[in-house]
Amino acid sequence: MLAASERLAPIIGPTPLLRSRALDARVGGRIFLKAECLQYTGSFKFRGAYNRLVQLDEQERAAGVVAFSSGNHAQGVAAAAALLGMKSVIVMPRDAPAAKIDATRGYGAEVVLYDRWTESREGISAAIAAERGAVLVPPFDDPRIIAGQGTTGLELARQAERFGEELDAAYVPASGGGLIAGVALALAEDSPGTAVYVAEPAGFDDYGRSLEAGHRVENATGISSICDALLSPTPGEITFEVNSRLLAGGVTVSDDEVRRAVAYAARTLKLVVEPGGAVALAALLAGKIDARGKAVALVLSGGNIDPALLADCIGAYPEP
């Protein structure tokens, strides 16, 4: 993970760890917001993508890369590939936010759209990679991806220390679990007293249920959520092996609670946060996190939201 941090250092700086007096007063605790919504490409995903791609050899770089994603990993891989002079093909669902599809193309990627309900993104991506001889870059189940995402946790621990704080807990959004696995590994080393919890949308709380079951479980089919970045059907194999050992539990929020959090972030925190990036904040605002008298970190994992949806959230919840 330290090696990943060194690879990323010439490319990106640390994202800020922010405080809000209004938020502290509201929940009675000391809240620290890790603003990955301000990261290059608008989410933490660039960290893992760049750490993976920069380690490809010359022959692999010449062949290019293929990835599948609803949007944030797509942009991370596309941007990393562009910086490294590589071709990229990204398989994305047709119902992904238009802003994410447009941004992925804007980084120079070839976008292949699919139906998330009837087609297999893994199958489509594997076929393209085989046909072109390209390298397949998974969104989370890869040690190099996890190490890159884990640099978020390294920064978090160091920044909290500069605030003079020992974090009691950290809440991290999860889909496949690459970010939270990396953060949990980093905090276990640099801030071992910090309990790490997963935050998920209702209906896609496969991590929380898997932790309770002691093995990976799947979400029901045919359901959806406003949190387009967190719709993975089940935890990753590698990530769950890590998270099953290190996570303290999980919290689940409704789409309405997420909308309120998106609006709160914009109105009170002055941050643009996408639904999937706001689930930890949503849990705090909904009273599902006991922060009274504690130092609690929330990872705001992404900010790639369609302007119309952002306006709808703000309009639906005009009061903080």
TrEMBL record:
One of its GO terms (molecular function) is L-serine ammonia-lyase activity. The keyword Lyase applies. Keywords: Lyase, Pyridoxal phosphate. InterPro entries: Ser/Thr_Dehydratase (IPR050147), Ser/Thr_deHydtase_PyrdxlP-BS (IPR000634), TrpB-like_PALP (IPR001926), TrpB-like_PALP_sf (IPR036052). GO terms for biological process: isoleucine biosynthetic process; L-serine catabolic process; L-threonine catabolic process. The keyword Oxidoreductase does not apply. It comes from the Bacteria. Its cofactor is pyridoxal 5'-phosphate. Residues 10-302 form the Tryptophan synthase beta chain-like PALP domain. Signal peptide: none annotated. PROSITE patterns: DEHYDRATASE_SER_THR. Belongs to the serine/threonine dehydratase family. This is Serine/threonine dehydratase.
